[in-house]
Inverse folding.
C-alpha cells in the first residue's frame, strides 16, 4: 500500500500508475485501469473511475489522473484500489490518502470576470467544481 | 516481505487498514483464510492485539480490511509507532506484509 498523504476538500490527488506485470515490467493493459474508491471501512465504492493514459507513445503502461476532491468526498481515510489486466491476469495496487478538515469542495476559481457597474463592482467566477459564484465590491 | 508506512491516526480514533493478498508472482489471490494480524508498538516484543482481517470486500479477490480502535484500553498512546505484520497463505505458501503507522 502506498500513502499519498493528506489533502483538503477542493484539492486534487495525483493518481499515477505504472501497469506492471509479475516481473515488474511495464506492459500495456487490455483496457484503461480502473480506480475503485472506498472510505474508511466501507465495503462499497464511493466512486469508480477510469485512469487515462499519460505520455502516450513515449512510455509503456503509464497512466495518471488528478482526483478532484469534490463534495462526493469528506473528511476521513480513503483507499484507491487500482486494477488492470495484462494477458488475462488481473493486477491490483492499493493507495490511501487522508482528507483533513478544511478546504472547499468547490475547489479554487478557474475563471474570473470583473464588471464595473454603477453602484457596485461585481465579480463572477467559476470553480473547479463548475459552480458559478458572484460577489460585489471586491476589496484587497 | 513488504513494509509500508500508512500514515497518522488520532489517539482514541480508529485506524483503517486494508491489504491486497497476493501470491509469489504479485498476482492478487484468494488466501486460504482471512489474513491475520498482530499489533506491536515501538520496540515492544509482545503483541498488544491480534486477530483477523475481514473480507474480501466488494467481491474483489484478496481485498481485506481491518479497523483498530486506538484506545488506552487497547494499549495505545499518542506518540507510538505501531507495526502491524499481516500474514496469509496462498496454496499453502505463507506471505507477509507489514504496515506501519503513528498514533498522534
Amino acid at each position: 500500500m502506498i500513502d499519498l498523504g493528506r489533502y483538503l476538500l477542493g484539492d486534487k490527488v495525483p493518481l499515477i500508475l505504472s501497469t506492471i506485470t509479475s516481473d515488474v515490467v511495464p506492459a500495456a493493459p487490455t483496457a484503461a485501469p480502473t480506480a475503485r474508491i472506498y472510505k474508511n471501512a466501507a465495503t462499497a465504492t464511493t466512486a469508480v473511475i477510469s485512469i487515462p493514459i499519460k505520455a502516450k507513445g513515449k512510455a509503456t503502461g503509464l497512466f495518471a489522473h488528478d482526483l478532484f476532491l469534490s463534495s462526493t468526498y469528506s473528511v476521513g481515510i480513503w483507499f484507491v484500489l487500482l486494477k488492470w489486466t495484462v494477458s488475462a491476469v488481473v493486477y491490483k495496487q492499493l493507495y490511501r490518502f487522508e482528507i483533513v478538515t478544511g478546504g472547499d469542495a468547490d475547489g479554487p476559481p478557474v475563471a474570473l470576470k470583473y464588471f464595473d457597474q454603477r453602484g457596485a463592482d461585481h465579480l463572477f467566477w467559476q470553480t473547479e467544481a463548475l459552480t458559478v459564484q458572484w460577489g460585489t465590491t471586491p476589496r484587497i | 516481505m513488504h513494509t509500508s508506512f500508512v500514515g497518522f491516526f488520532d489517539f482514541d480514533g480508529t485506524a483503517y487498514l486494508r491489504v491486497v493478498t497476493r501470491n509469489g508472482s504479485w498476482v492478487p489471490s484468494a488466501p486460504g483464510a482471512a489474513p491475520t494480524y498482530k499489533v506491536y508498538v515501538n520496540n515492544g516484543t509482545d503483541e498488544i492485539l491480534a486477530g483477523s482481517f475481514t473480507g474480501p470486500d466488494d467481491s474483489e479477490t484478496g481485498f481485506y480490511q481491518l479497523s483498530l480502535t486506538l484506545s488506552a484500553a487497547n494499549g495505545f498512546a499518542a506518540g507510538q509507532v505501531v507495526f502491524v505484520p499481516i500474514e496469509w497463505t496462498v496454496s499453502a505458501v505463507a506471505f507477509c506484509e507489514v504496515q506501519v503507522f503513528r498514533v498522534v
